[in-house]
Amino acid sequence: MKERKTFWDKNAGRYDRFMRKDRAAYEEMYKLIRPVVKAKTVLELATGTGLIAKHIVNAAAHIEATDASAEMIAEAKRDNHSAKLHFSVQDMFRLPYADKSFDVVIVSNALHIVPQPEKALQEIKRVLKEDGVLIAPTFTHVGNSFSGKVKAFFMKLAGFPLHSRWTSEEYLRFLRQNGWTVRKSAVLKASFPLTYAECVKMEV
User: Fold this and answer.
1) Cα(172)–Cα(177) distance, integer angstroms
2) pLDDT of residue 15
3) Is residue 2 domain-resident?
4) Are 62 and 42 in contact (CB under 8 A)?
5) Residue 103 within a domain
6) Looking at the 3D structure of the chain, how many domains does it have?
7) Residue ranges of the chain with pLDDT lower than 70?
8) Tell me, what's the pLDDT at 180?
9) What is the predicted pLDDT for the residue at 2?
10) Which end of the chain lies in a sparser environment, N or C, as judged by fewer CB atoms within 10 Å?
11) Domain-located, residue 3
């Protein structure tokens, strides 16, 4: 986790500016997420500066928004005006919550940047209620255009920790292989193709 944490701590202050260019894709994503979280208890992992949590909190009953980076959480707390939204520093591989605590877990643009994403999915499964929903939108870099590949190259030079490279189809297959039924998916147009995935626990 160390490598990822130092990169995000260093870049916390400029993260929102970096994400601005994908505002349209994110607006589309918020529209997809809001009905799912309506009046629900939500856990968000890798919240960064809290962009998603702040845009959907009015729909939810309560959101616990977490990140491994203390600097990211400090940024997120700065303009949090909702009593329904709580930010904290947590490790997504060892969450402090009881089994089956949440109706919805959101992990956005994080599974491709952590080592062993399947372990993160196991921990999500533990804290999610049996009938709960996982929302896992992720940049799927392999489907890149030439300009996307150039961007990915420079991000790598800057120290961006990319551990998994998936096409949209490979990413959805990865979720299924790890015990999730994908009930809804869409590819949103952004700097990199953004694969929105809404999942439930696979029936054994």
Assistant:
1) 9
2) 45
3) no
4) yes
5) yes
6) 1
7) 1-21, 141-164, 204
8) 98
9) 46
10) C
11) no
Given this model, what pLDDT does residue 141 score? 57
Secondary structure of the chain in the HEC alphabet? CHHHHHHHHHHHHHHHHHHHHHHHHHHHHHHHHHHHHCCCEEEEECCCCCHHHHHHCCCCCEEEEEECCHHHHHHHHHCCCCCCEEEEECECCECCCCCCCEEEEEECCCCCCCCCHHHHHHHHHHHEEEEEEEECCEECHHHCCHHHHHHHHHHHHCCCCCCCCCCHHHHHHHHHHCCEEEEEEEEECCCCCEEEEEEEECCC
pLDDT digits (tens, 9 = 90+) for 42-95: 999 999 999 999 999 999 999 999 999 999 999 999 989 999 999 999 999 999
CATH number at residue 136: 3.40.50.150
Single out the residue of 101, 79, 76 nearest to residue 88, CA to CA.
76
